Amino acid sequence: xxxxxxxxxxxxxxxxxxxxxxxxxxxxxxxxxxxxxxxxxxxxxxxxxxxxxxxxxxxxxxxxxxxxxxxxxxxxxxxxxxxxxxxxxxxxxxxxxxxxxxxxxxxxxxxxxxxxxxxxxxxxxxxxxxxxxxxxxxxxxxxxxxxxxxxxxxxxxxxxxxxxxxxxxxxxxxxxxxxxxxxxxxxxxxxxxxxxxxxxxxxxxxxxxxxxxxxxxxxxxxxxxxxxxxxxxxxxxxxxxxxxxxxxxxxxxxxxxxxxxxxxxxxxxxxxxxxxxxxxxxxxxxxxxxxxxxxxxx
Length: 298
Ligand code: NDP
Hints:
Blueprint: E1 4-5, H1 8-30, E2 35-41, H2 45-60, E3 64-70, H3 76-88, E4 94-97, H4 107-113, H5 125-132, H6 142-152, E5 162-166, H7 173-181, E6 190-194, H8 201-205, E7 210-213, E8 231-234, E9 238-241, E10 249-252, H9 257-260, E11 266-267, H10 275-294
Parallel strand pairs: 1-11, 2-3, 2-4, 5-6, 5-7, 7-8, 8-11
Antiparallel strand pairs: 9-10
NADPH dihydro-nicotinamide-adenine-dinucleotide phosphate binds next to helix 10.
């Protein structure tokens, strides 16, 4: 039997609608316009495209957005000064410094300089710590926060389920585990985290009621590694050569979709699965940040 396809696009569209309504209501009731600053250093085409998509999404939801574009050779001290300025700016509630940064700039130093209350990417060590101690009022990294929404909104509440996460990165695997462990809605799961040193990965992934894969290896996860009926969330985005496409490649996930969909109960596609959720959750985080900074009730 073929799995139910979980459409990240549909879920993302409904969260975007809800976020736009929240923004409209904040403007009307509290004269508050959530503001997001995006900082782009250099001319990396992928970074330019991501920042462009983030600003477009912000505008569509009524969020004020300001893009700061800087030369690739900007000194680190100058970038730190710009971040400090944004920390102090009352019109800006969320700050996003697009990664990666040029080699002469220490990323960790820049991330540490962002005011934690405005850290809408959720990468500041204070926010990482708050999330891992189970705090609720925290800005959580957008991709794993999006995965939680996908589970909840498709009737796959992780509470009481065994969730196996493959990957332990700081942007996906680790915060994913922290979110799922919280004693709260979207949490209360039994969590196993596997990685490149896990022997016999299939023996671990077959235990999962919900399997979340964030490896960065095209179609590594095969059908015989999935328990029949499991929910499979594929975070991976990989380019593979494809001469039949005009651009010469196609995008695939970390899961061998065609075979796994015959075993799983539900599955996310790539593209159109987790991908659309990340920017959407960034906007939701920006609105949460604005509400908390203003100290108001929505
Ligand atoms: P990282 O490279 O930072 O981490 C990959 C993780 O996978 C590591 O923990 C690594 O283990 C583990 N791993 C690698 N190979 C294997 C293997 N053979 N078996 C088991 N575990 C393995 O990647 P990210 O977390 O940043 O990204 C993962 C994927 O998700 C990528 O395809 C990326 O493009 C995608 N992504 C998608 C997003 C979206 O919006 N949809 C957002 C962010 C990422 P170890 O720690 O031992 O090295």
